[in-house]
Amino acid sequence: MIEGLAALYIFMLAGFTGFEIISRVPVILHTPLMSGSNFVHGIVLVGAMVALGIAEDTTQQIIGFIAVLLGAGNAVGGYVVTERMLEMFKPSKKKEGSEG
Predict the structure, then answer these.
(1) pLDDT tens-digit map of 8-45
(2) How many DSSP H helices and E strands does the chain contain?
(3) Would you give the DSSP letter of residue 89?
């Protein structure tokens, strides 16, 4: 019981701390931070797969499976957002036949 409450406390503390840190980041730094955080999301995904692999009962397996799904979605979404943001900084190509 106490271990569960300690884990919940750590989870809530990490959530509030992460929100406060990210909300104070300037917009220009979001692309480099997204690239770095994608690495962390990959590690979270590996941790979720390990947790799923050592799950002993059905409840743990369900929670582990949800963790793997959310971790994978988070990592893939981070790479998609980073790619779209980097596309904004590339020079646009002129179409053939257009004057300008």
Answers:
(1) 888 899 888 888 877 887 777 766 676 677 777 788 88
(2) 3, 0
(3) T
